[in-house]
C-alpha cells in the first residue's frame, strides 16, 4: 500500500522549508529509505545505540521492509555516506489522519548537532503531505533531555502516563528498570508546533512561578523527595533527576526510587486531570491541576 500525497497547502510548504532548514543546520541529508541495504543500516545503527538483547531488537530488517512496502515511514539522516540517525513510524487509528512514531535514534558521534530535530521535522513534513494531522510516540519521562526535546523543542503534548509499557527491556539503556513511558501527541499544524519548527523556544522557567506547589523535588544528594499530599489546584512542579541513565549504572537503588516517585506523582497528577503545560530545562515538569483536583 502507498499513501497518496495530498495537494500542497501553505502549511505543507512551510513544513518542507522548516525540514530543509533543520537538516542543513544539522549538517545532514534526511531521506526516505526502502532498499534492503539501507534498512539493514537502520538495524545496525539501532543495535549500536541500544545494544539490545539479540532476541528482542527494536526493529528487524524484515519488519522495516514490510513497513516500507505498506507505505509507512522509515527515514535516515546521512552525514555524507554515513547513516547517523533514523526514524521509524507507522499509521495508526484512524489511519487516514494519525501516525505512531515507534523509534528514533542518533549515533553517539552525531549527538549534539540537532540531528534528531531534523529527523522529526522531516517526519512532520512527510506526514502533512499525506494528510496526517497528528503523530504520537512515547519517551521515558525520567530522561531530562528527552523531556525538553519532546515538550519544548517539538511542542508535543503529553497525553497519558503508561506504567511499565514495554515490560523488561534488556538493553544498555533500559536494563534493570521498569519501562514507564509518557505518551505524547504532536498536533502537526498547531500554532505552537509551527512556531517551534522555525524558532528556538526556551520553555517555562520555575523562577517565574514562586507560588507553584512542589509535588516532587530533589534532595541535596539527588534523591527524590515527594511533597505533602492533599493540595488543591494550580501550578504544580515535578522534578526529575539530573542523569537517570548514569544513576542506573552508579546507584541503581536511587534510579528505582526515582521511577517509583515519578510514577506516583506525575502519573497520579495526569490521572487526576492535570495537564503538563511545559518543562523547565533544569529538570521540572510544569503542570496545571484543576481546582477540584486533590491528591
UniProtKB/TrEMBL annotation:
Q: What is this protein called?
A: BioF2-like acetyltransferase domain-containing protein
| UniProt xrefs under SUPFAM superfamilies | Acyl-CoA N-acyltransferases (Nat)
BioF2-like acetyltransferase domain residues are 21-136
Where on the tree of life does the source sit, at the highest rank?
Bacteria
State the InterPro entries in the record. Acyl_CoA_acyltransferase, BioF2-like_GNAT_dom, GNAT_N_AcTrfase_prd
Which Pfam families does this UniProt record tie to the protein?
A: Acetyltransf_6
Organism of origin is: Kribbella lupini
Amino acid at each position: 500500500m502507498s499513501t497518496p500525497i495530498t495537494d500542497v497547502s501553505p502549511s505543507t510548504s512551510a513544513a518542507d522549508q522548516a525540514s530543509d532548514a533543520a537538516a542543513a543546520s544539522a549538517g545532514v541529508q534526511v531521506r526516505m529509505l526502502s532498499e534492503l541495504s539501507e534498512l539493514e543500516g537502520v538495524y545496525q545503527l539501532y543495535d549500536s545505540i541500544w545494544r539490545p538483547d539479540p532476541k528482542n531488537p527494536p526493529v528487524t530488517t524484515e519488519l522495516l521492509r514490510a513497513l516500507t512496502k505498506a507505505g509507512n515511514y522509515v527515514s535516515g539522516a546521512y552525514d555524507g555516506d554515513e547513516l547517523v540517525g533514523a526514524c521509524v513510524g507507522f499509521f495508526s487509528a484512524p489511519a487516514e489522519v494519525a501516525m505512531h512514531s515507534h523509534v528514533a535514534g542518533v549515533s553517539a558521534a552525531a549527538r549534539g548537532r540537532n540531528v534528531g530535530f531534523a529527523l522529526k521535522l522531516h517526519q512532520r513534513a512527510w506526514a502533512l503531505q499525506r494528510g496526517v494531522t497528528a503523530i504520537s510516540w512515547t519517551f521515558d519521562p525520567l530522561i531530562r533531555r528527552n523531556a525538553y526535546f519532546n515538550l519544548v523543542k517539538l511542542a508535543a503534548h503529553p497525553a497519558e502516563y503508561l506504567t511499565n509499557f514495554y515490560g523488561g527491556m534488556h538493553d544498555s539503556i533500559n536494563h534493570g528498570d521498569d519501562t514507564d513511558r509518557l505518551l505524547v501527541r504532536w498536533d502537526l499544524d498547531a500554532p505552537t508546533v509551527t512556531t517551534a519548527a522555525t524558532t528556538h523556544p526556551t520553555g517555562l522557567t520555575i523562577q517565574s512561578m514562586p507560588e507553584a506547589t512542589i509535588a516532587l523535588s530533589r534532595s541535596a544528594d539527588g534523591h527524590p523527595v515527594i511533597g505533602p499530599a492533599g493540595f488543591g489546584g494550580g501550578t504544580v512542579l515535578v522534578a526529575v533527576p539530573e542523569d537517570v541513565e548514569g544513576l542506573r549504572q552508579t546507584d541503581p537503588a536511587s534510579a528505582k526510587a526515582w521511577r517509583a516517585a515519578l510514577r506516583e506523582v506525575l502519573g497520579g497528577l495526569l490521572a487526576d486531570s492535570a495537564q503538563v503545560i511545559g518543562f523547565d530545562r533544569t529538570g521540572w515538569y510544569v503542570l496545571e491541576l484543576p481546582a477540584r483536583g486533590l491528591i
